[in-house]
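Duplicate of #3305? Posting structure anyway:
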């Protein structure tokens, strides 16, 4: 990169695009263009649109240094959300740190299915392994009269979820620490949702995801272990006619369906994400 000095946002944006793409002619409309713009807006604390509408806006040396530092981290594979500290999910602006998974667009399908299966205004709902709180808070936003209980084994993750709940004013969400059903002994729910770790411990994909918390990505050697734990425990924690909705890997739909049927669930079915991969599976007690 060039030496540190003041510049304009337009010049810095072009520099960022070149750095992230390695292609001198990369377009501002390409994905790397959007990422470079998001990072620059974050550093400059200005709206993204202003970078395009006022490219002559002057920068200061400190902003140039910080922008280049974030560009280097992004080029090394660190998720954009960890660099900006924010991620949008279900139209919610969430705080995100390396203590939690980066919420993915495909997980919005889990929220969509949960809302479809439980249209009632009232309900008692559990989100197991809540992470940033993305699923629990989305459900609470859409169903203000639901009681939502969100759990996670990670105290650090729960702290981020609490921060997000407070910022969004979603006071009906309660948080408890513990492993899967341990924090909800003796309680029964109208709906249980979960996006558990489902990647095999030796899967090369974990290398790409190395910046995200391993505990939230893989249960270890058997990628199906956490999914089975959630399925088998759900019968004791669902009210009659209650639903379990799970996110899982793109090739795990058939296994999850089989596990639900063996556990006594009915109306078992999987649903594809926008890429056409079976991503969520549901069953009714």
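Output from current build:
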């Amino acid at each position: 990169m060039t030496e540190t000095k003041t510049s304009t946002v337009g010049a810095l944006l072009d520099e960022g695009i070149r750095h992230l793409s390695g292609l001198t002619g990369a377009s501002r409309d390409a994905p790397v263009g959007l990422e470079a713009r998001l990072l620059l807006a974050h550093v400059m604390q200005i709206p993204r649109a202003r970078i395009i509408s006022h490219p002559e806006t002057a920068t200061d040396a400190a902003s140039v240094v910080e922008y280049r530092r974030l560009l280097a981290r992004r080029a090394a594979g660190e998720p954009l959300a960890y660099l900006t500290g924010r991620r949008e999910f279900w139209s919610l602006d969430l705080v995100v740190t390396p203590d939690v998974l980066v919420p993915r667009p495909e997980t919005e399908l889990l929220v969509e299915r949960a809302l479809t299966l439980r249209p009632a205004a009232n309900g008692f709902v559990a989100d197991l392994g809540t992470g940033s709180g993305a699923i629990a808070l989305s459900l609470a936003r859409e169903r203000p009269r639901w009681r939502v209980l969100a759990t996670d084994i990670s105290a650090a993750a729960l702290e981020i979820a609490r921060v997000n709940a407070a910022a969004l004013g979603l006071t009906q969400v309660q948080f408890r620490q513990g492993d899967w059903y341990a924090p909800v002994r003796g309680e029964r729910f109208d709906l249980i949702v979960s996006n558990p770790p489902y990647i095999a411990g030796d899967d090369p994909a974990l290398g790409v995801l190395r910046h995200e918390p391993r505990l939230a990505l893989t249960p270890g050697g058997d990628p199906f272990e956490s999914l089975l734990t959630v399925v088998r425990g759900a019968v004791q924690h669902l009210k009659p006619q209650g639903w379990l909705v799970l996110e899982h890997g793109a090739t795990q739909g058939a296994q999850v369906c089989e596990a639900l049927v063996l556990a006594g669930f009915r109306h078992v079915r999987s649903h594809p994400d926008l890429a056409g991969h079976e991503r969520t599976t549901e069953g009714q007690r």
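Confirmed duplicate; merging threads. The chain has a mean pLDDT of 92. Residues 9-76 form a domain with the Helicase, Ruva Protein; domain 3 fold (CATH 1.10.8).
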